Amino acid sequence: MIRVLVVDDHPVVRSGLSGMLSVTEDISVVGEAGDGSEALAIVESTRPDVVLMDLRMPRMDGVAATGAIVSKYPETRVLVLTTYDTDTDILHAVEAGAAGYLLKDTPHTELLNGIRAAARGETVLAPPVAARLMSRLRAPAPTTAAAPSPRELQVLAAVARGLSNAEIGRELFIGEATVKTHLQRLFAKLDVDDRTHAVTVAIERGLLPSPGR
To answer: Parallel, antiparallel, or unpaired for β 50-53 and 27-33?
Structure first.
């Protein structure tokens, strides 16, 4: 019997997945969690074979939870199940130690087979995800990206403080459209897809000070 924990911040999705898995002869649902923090607590108490993990959730997201689970409970396999298939999301999940990456439009049978494969220690990738990873691996090594300009770093520092585009524009005396342009250029230079990842990468590279400094 494969023991599975379902993690998703949408109650209807959790309920639907649990109901589907519960009627499968070789799979048992040992719990449900609405975010990464709750998932960690349930993993500690139930030690599931597979955690079916959503990515974007409040408090602790799926990537952070995956890293924590894999580090502390290496016998538990984490299988990402999400609607997001961007390169950044996929790479972050894989780097965190996810055993696989499936999309929420995966057919019922393929999802069940993916859970079984993950429980056996195999890597499970949805075809579009596998294609993205292969494309990235085959791509030529990128040349050194241009460094963010001082103005772009000013904008990103304001983002790190939680300001909206309109608030950043007022603070820096520039239009909101100009703020968006700076952010788009930053995303390209840092190879990210959203504001949160841009701030995280900038801190990791020393372009922005760490929180509290």
So the answer is: unpaired
Residue 190: helix, strand or coil by DSSP? helix
Neighbour tally for 197: CB within 10 Å: 17
Q: What is the pLDDT of residues 68-115, one digit of tens each?
A: 999 999 999 999 999 987 778 888 888 899 999 999 999 999 999 999
Q: Is the confidence at residue 180, as pLDDT, over 80?
A: yes
Q: Can you tell me whether residue 155 is helix, strand or coil? A: helix
The sign of the CA dihedral 22, 26, 30, 31 is: negative
CA–CA–CA angle 39, 12, 104 (5° rounding) = 75
List, edge to edge, every strand of the sheet that includes 50-53: 27-33, 2-7, 50-53, 77-82, 100-103, 124-125
Token pair 């898995």 is at which residue? 21
In this structure, what token pair is assigned to residue 105?
Answer: 């439009």
Banded pLDDT at 132 (limits 50, 70, 90)? confident
Coil, strand or helix at 43: helix
pTM confidence score: 0.65
